[in-house]
Write a structure and sequence with these properties.
Number of strands: 14
Radius of gyration: 21 Å
Number of helices: 16
Shape: globular
Strand order of the largest sheet: 1-2-3-4-5-7-11-12
Length: about 500
């Protein structure tokens, strides 16, 4: 096809981070302890063993609370955005960002989650961040909850399993919408809302040993129901308090291909994909899909609802669908003798036709286009790609340069796939925020050495370093992409 070779006018180019991975300042400014502040790194564990990296017990929490250590609890220091935000935003502006996706740390606003009044120092910090963004004409895209429920809600309320947490979250949302109604137009409710099934601690504040004798899958889905109701309330609050605001859901776009054309493999991939879609289906359509209700029935899972839950969910669906996309995977009915590789929060069957990153995540730009078409055909609502990128071990050369051509190659092909989906497939896409635009602590393995950014942060896995910022080769490349609205993706320049 003859590309016009530029993205739609007003396309929102930018980058994305999360407070729990980039912010630091975990015990400053009146902030309370979050679940992420107690998420321990396991540097001696294979990076592909996702389950081991994210297993948490009550004993682990007790050990975390007994120490101020930031080495084995690296999210406590992050990239120290808390003290560097002006410098970082200036660098984002230099690249030409139109939008910056960030999250508000719930425990910075309500330190314990159940506080009657908010922490003014925390509210002021985000005021300053948003003001700094607007100084450069950068639109904030704010995630209300990104893997950081206040720990107090875990210890005293059993996390999102408790119905009371809906009220605490609603108070938090009312507070931030009131405070930032003139500063934030774009909102996301829960990051990768589907992820609770894979890491229930960071998403839902659920620790399995705190639910003895209970079906833990049922516990997870009960907590999920509470998040769906809370998300609908958050959407209502945003629309009522901020005219013209747009609220999105956010899911992990796990794309599965049948390993072979055997009908059993095709069915397996379809069933596996539904395991992700059920969450966005609920938030977009405002009701549980029939296939999820069948799953509950067939597995003996009972969800407790209160009067009005179905009505609030139905009345306040999301305005757009945002998602993360890093890799694709395969599915097969018979997995014996098949190679397994890692991906974003999962391990799955390896695709023999794809190359992989150093962390085993398979690189598949075409899969992003397929994902966009699938989501847009399914929902007919605008899409927003809010996470995509390549985690790699970057090397600082003599002279301080960082030649991350591999990242440029990855991003270029994915951006071309986005434009194909927009131009050729008619997909409505609001924008693109690549993940970890500045280096941060990886969610899956808690490493700094798994770097995603255009900006290098001088900090190693153990928190050692100056935390100085350095521009990578990709910094200048992305600046040109934004400057030309995508035209430079098709040029034969030095990049």
């Amino acid at each position: 096809m003859n590309h016009k070779q530029t993205f739609p006018e007003g396309f929102l180019w930018g980058g994305a981070t999360a407070a729990n991975q980039v912010e630091g300042g975990w015990n400053e400014g009146g902030k309370g302890i979050s679940v992420s502040d107690c998420a321990r790194a396991h540097f001696d564990t294979d990076v592909t063993n996702y389950k081991a990296h994210n297993a948490v017990t009550s004993q682990d929490i007790e050990a975390a609370l007994a120490t101020d250590d930031e080495v084995y609890y690296p999210k406590r220091h992050g990239s120290d955005f808390y003290h560097h935000y002006k410098e970082d935003i200036r660098l984002f502006a230099e690249m030409g960002f139109k939008v910056y996706r960030l999250s508000i740390a719930w425990s910075r606003i309500f330190p314990n989650g159940d506080d009657e009044t908010p922490n003014e120092e925390g509210l002021k910090f985000y005021d300053d961040v948003f003001d700094e963004l607007h100084k450069y004409g950068i639109e904030p895209l704010v995630t209300m909850s990104h893997y950081e429920p206040p720990l107090n809600l875990v210890l005293n309320y059993k996390g999102w399993y408790s119905r009371e947490v809906i009220g605490f979250f609603t108070r938090y949302v009312e507070t931030i919408c009131t405070r930032y109604k003139d500063k934030v137009k774009y909102w996301l409710t829960f990051n990768e809302v589907d992820s609770m099934i894979r890491h229930p601690y960071t998403t839902g504040g659920l620790i399995e040993d705190r639910f003895p004798g209970q079906n833990f899958e049922e516990v997870i889905f009960q907590a999920m129901h509470h998040q769906f109701v809370a998300s609908a309330h958050a959407t209502r609050i945003c629309h009522e308090m901020i005219p013209g605001s747009l609220v999105g859901c956010m899911l992990t776009k796990l794309t599965y291909y049948p390993y072979t054309c055997k009908p059993e493999d095709v069915l397996k991939s379809q069933q596996t994909m539904r395991g992700t879609y059920c969450y966005s289906d609920t938030q977009v359509f405002g009701e549980y899909p029939a296939y999820l209700l069948s799953r509950f029935k067939n597995n003996g899972i009972t969800i407790r609802k209160e009067d009005g839950d179905d009505e609030i969910m139905k009345s306040h669906p999301v305005d757009f669908v945002s998602f993360s996309y890093y890799n694709s995977s395969c599915a097969a009915e018979d997995t014996s003798n098949l190679n397994v590789t890692s991906g974003n929060t999962i391990n799955a069957i390896k695709n023999p036709y794809l190359k992989a990153s150093d962390w085993g995540w398979q690189i598949d730009p075409t899969g992003l286009r397929i994902s966009m078409v699938d989501l847009y055909d399914r929902y007919r609502k605008p899409l927003f790609i809010v996470e995509n990128g390549l985690g790699a071990a970057d090397v600082v050369n003599e002279g301080g340069t960082i030649d991350d051509q591999y990242r440029i190659d990855y991003l270029r092909e994915h951006m071309k796939a986005i434009l194909d989906a927009i131009e050729e497939d008619g997909v409505d896409c609001l924008g693109y925020t690549s993940w970890g635009c500045i280096d941060l602590v990886s969610e899956s393995t808690k490493q700094m050495s798994k770097r995603y950014g255009y900006i290098y942060v001088d900090c190693d896995d153990y928190g050692n370093g100056t935390y100085n910022r350095m521009k990578k080769k990709s910094f200048y490349w992305y600046k040109k992409v934004i400057q030309t609205n995508g035209l430079s993706l098709y040029s034969d320049d030095e990049f």
